[in-house]
Amino acid sequence: MEQLSALLTRPPLVAAVLTPGAAGVLAGAAARLLLARLRRGARVRAPVCELAVAVGWAACGAGWALGLVPPPWVAVLVGLWWLVVAASVTDLVHRRLPDALVLPAFPAALLLVAPLGGEAVLRAATGALLTVAAHAPWHLLAPRALGAGDVKLAAPLGAVLAAAAWPAPLLAAGLAAVFTGGAAATVVVAARLRRRPRPAAIAHGPSMLAATVVTLATVFAAGAPP
């Protein structure tokens, strides 16, 4: 207990949590304002984005302070988490992923991965290509289940996942399918119990984003990233 208390009160850990947490509040506010201005964005009440980004960024800072996240990965993870919050909110509220949000995310991902080295960038680019190629046929076969925005979102997510570890994109894709399937089953059961019409579709983007976060957390816990 004393060791845990000493760890939590250690100045580097406190600073590593509070500083990015405070910055996350500002970044979350920026995300909320940006979504409100986008033509196909979303209007979100404060402080949903602010709190969500702050918590994620604080967790990234804690991971770095505890030695779980290598320093070059901190910028990648905070950028990814900002996208997770902004894209999830939009997809959950309006069931759409704006091009203005997801298209710039891929070059941004490559830029953030660049400090990891040329090999990581090559893995990221290859992972993005393969992930998009894997999602595109499903969109053509079932566009209501997997939208065009989901295919575009696959590029930055696949890039970050592949930069972390080669099996990561495959694991994340499987988890996303499980998450969406579980959500769909829950919604169907709830609709039947309440005797209400079944919803037309379940947004897949939040499942992709959640699966990416879970997969990366697993990879970092295993000490796999460079």
TrEMBL record:
GO terms for cellular component: plasma membrane. Pfam families: Peptidase_A24. Keywords: Membrane, Methyltransferase, Transferase, Transmembrane, Transmembrane helix. One of its GO terms (biological process) is methylation. GO terms for molecular function: aspartic-type endopeptidase activity; methyltransferase activity. Residues 79-180 form the Prepilin type IV endopeptidase peptidase domain. The keyword Transmembrane helix applies. The chain crosses the membrane at residues 12-35, 47-67, 73-93, 100-118, 175-193, 205-224. Belongs to the peptidase A24 family. PANTHER family: PREPILIN LEADER PEPTIDASE_N-METHYLTRANSFERASE-RELATED, TYPE 4 PREPILIN-LIKE PROTEINS LEADER PEPTIDE-PROCESSING ENZYME. This is Leader peptidase (Prepilin peptidase) / N-methyltransferase.
